[in-house]
Amino acid sequence: MTNYEIKEYLFDRESVGLLPDVPRLSNWPVVYVLNGPAGKGRLGAVYLGETVSFTSRMRQHIEKEDKRERLRQVRVVLDERFNKSVCLDLESRLIQYAAGDGSLEVLNRNTGVTDADYFDRDSYREMFDDIFNDLREAGVFQRTIPQIVNSELFKLSPFKALTHDQGIAVVDIMEGLTQDLSDELGAGDLIFVTGDPGTGKTVVAIYLMKLISDVGDGRDVEEVDGDNMFADFYLEDTRKLFQGLKIALVVPQQALRKSIGNVFKNTPGLHPDMVMSPWDVANSDEDFDIVIVDEAHRLNQYSAQVHSRNKEFKDINARLYGGQKPDASQLDWLRTKSKHVILMFDQKQSVRPHDLPKEEFAEILDGAGGQKPRTYSLVTQMRSLGGNDYIQYVYDVLSNRPPRERLSFGDSYELGLVDSPRTLVELINAREEEHGLSRIVAGYAWKWVSRKIDGPDFDIDLGEGVRLPWNSKKVDWVTSANAINEAGSIHTVQGYDLNYAGVIIGEDLRFDPLTESLYIDKSNYHDTQGKQNNKLRNRETTTEMLTEFITSIYAVLLTRGIRGTFIHVVNPELREYLGRYFPTIG
């Protein structure tokens, strides 16, 4: 399919007025791209759309002052085989690529991105990338498709086509918020969105931020498609409820927070300052209307904090509660500072003793002391090509109730044990060359000695000449220039997607062939913050707790890879045990 053509016109009153009134432009499905150059202190802009009457649509657009100011050219994609479904699909694809390109502000709402099936979709999609490449050659976009799809701008973009369960969750959350805002409820209302790794909790969090912002902004409401599942939220009475709200996206992990902030910088209606830590919210002079928390299982309890933050924790509790709640948690802070708190949550991904304990979350979910919070579940696997079965399989293998048989996950997902560390490095380097975004990650079974000025230049020595330093960057390590030559820890990759993960399992996790059980070696676990007791709450980090943390860390690492996971196991007994469930490759 290569019969499309792209027509180019200037976008000004005179040129739009002279657009020819011919059938292909006035009565046929098309996709168009409006773009304009960068201005002082801001990026260029792009708006993508589909219509059955291009000429009249451009006359509507030219009457909008914001579009006249920022947009200069329009290109329309024409093909006699186009229909409404094809155009909606192409429009969605181009919006997502534009958001990941990074050189432009995408002026669209995110509600225009869909992923509906239709007749002969695969054959139509074969030409979509050709259309993008033609637009790139014309100077509309800067990056190639492989560069875009591997970027955090693309992966963390609010311009995503939601799965069915994500869409239902977003609609239900928005309907609940609409009712709650009408009732003017007090602070502390909780909503939980639960799901396994890869089900898109971060996608829902970022999508909600954009949707709430756009509904409150209310611009171009007449352009909202009445068939869109979010159309009712743009009705005037609802829009008024969302106008002027103070909203924030709270991200406990520093690395992920910085990456999402970079996305918000390029997204109209959003701003990097909206991406906050729990500390930022607690120390803010203002209260919030809505706080959305990504990776909520990483919220902290009152405990000894790294970088001398223990005093700040005490000061915040004293200021917020006047001495009445000296052991208040970060979740308590958020409930105090915001009317509505939406938590993206997976208790299995808690990895440190100062993470809020599962017992406290369980009490809240059970409605202890009040009404049960609303809860929505995400089940569709978006990350791993191994599907939902692979995620559950990993957790089962790392449990005391392992699978009864080995499962296979098809040719689309590469998976296996790699006995040779040199082969592991070669496999990851080869996948990096072919697909990009392939990284080696490891459990915290080696000390971080390379950060010392007089220390060695490596931390992990696996033999066969394979010596790796820990991640040299705490923020944006996954996309950093030297990441391919380093090993990432749990704190640099939790919440991120990789194409391929090379996972090193160290001597902190072992297997006892006599008892047929997994166990941990605390002396080989070197995350100091990950095993200390919580003296401030009189909570001991027991061996049972530490076993949960360490197995959770490895489960998270083993579920980062979209296309595949290669596993190198240091402990021979554990390697033999895992060989029951994973094939050996290399």
TrEMBL record:
User: What InterPro entries does its record include?
Assistant: AAA+_ATPase (IPR003593), GIY-YIG_endonuc (IPR000305), P-loop_NTPase (IPR027417), SLFN_3-like_DNA/RNA_helicase (IPR018647)
In this record, what's one Pfam family?
SLFN-g3_helicase
Q: Specify the GIY-YIG domain's residue ranges.
A: 27-109
Q: Which organism is it from?
A: Corynebacterium suedekumii
User: What lineage does the source organism belong to?
Assistant: Bacteria, Bacillati, Actinomycetota, Actinomycetes, Mycobacteriales
- Which superkingdom heads the taxonomic lineage of this protein's source? Bacteria
Name of the protein described by the UniProt record: DUF2075 domain-containing protein
